[in-house]
Amino acid sequence: MTQESLNSSDGGGLFPRLQQRYGLRDNPLEMETPFFPDAMRQHALETLRHLCGFGDMVLVLTGAPGAGKTRVLAELVRSESSRLDFHRIPASALTSRQALARYLKQLAKSGIPADSEPREAVYRFFRWSESGLRRGHRQVLLIDDADRVESDVLNLLVAGFVASERSVSAVPILAGTEQVWSQLEDRPDSAYAHHLNLPPLSREDIKAYLEPRVHRAGGSQSELLSASRLKKLEVLSQGSFGRLKRVAPGVWLDMVPSSATSSSKAGFTVAHLRWPALGLVLLAASWWFVSQQYESTVQRQAGAEVEPEPVRKSITIGPGAEDPEPEIAPLIAPAGQDEPVVPGENNAAEELTQAPPETEIVPEPEPEP
Fold first, then answer.
1. Which CATH architecture has domain 41-198?
2. For 26, 54, 123, 126, which has the most beta carbons within 10 A of its beta carbon?
């Protein structure tokens, strides 16, 4: 449905229906101008302009498929072709190191011997390209879709550039997905590479991109760029220029139901909440198990008898030691046991138990006659 062509020459395309419904004079999705400057596109273009002319680094431009990398390179060639010599090398031609060397020999013509080995030919090309700046034009090698090129071919290309006089030799520009940068960032030569990434488009970026094109095509911005349609365009395009051009006709002709965007949110809720919920259940079960173990341990400790700790007595022996106080035996011995014999205490006990002596009565003397 959304993959159909928009060309007016195709009778089965959707563009005639867009013309009939909205009165469009031209196809807004096929307009190459104006160049879209937002979402880091203008920044990437200006950086490429500067480093191609005066830089000494390999330039790596990455982004998702349909992010607009080819459009940025086309704008670079259009604006800087008067002072730079651009050479497009198709990724399909770089199937091996020999293929790379053969292509560079064609560019250098007589500057590289025909019988040179691939590695020597690549190194000789960059040394030969140093003279290009002296002639007034620096050379630039454009390799689009570089993620389709074998890693050993890219490594040889980068190694040849690093071994040359980098400030004046031909500048390689590698455009592709993040895979291109991942192949280079682990190499020692990554210090001589500059990475530029194109982020996906937001809803505001999509509106800013389509507004001037819809206006030039004679369409109504309030209809084609309403809030509900912008929301659908953002969800279905996933921030890609390529997908935006494919899904926009179906959105504008109301061929995409609202459930197409809401279903993605529902799927997100179910799919992403299932694992967190399972984690919470496992966490609650482990907490309950630990609490049960703790309570049983506390109960066992409370029921156990606590044995008194033995009391240690210290005895000091030596000069200045105090004599221990003698223990006083109980006066009344327990029944069935003999009284303890304590020296010096028997006499005292007997004296206490003896009755007091009787007083002798002395008769009074009789009076004398």
1. 3-Layer(aba) Sandwich (3.40)
2. 126
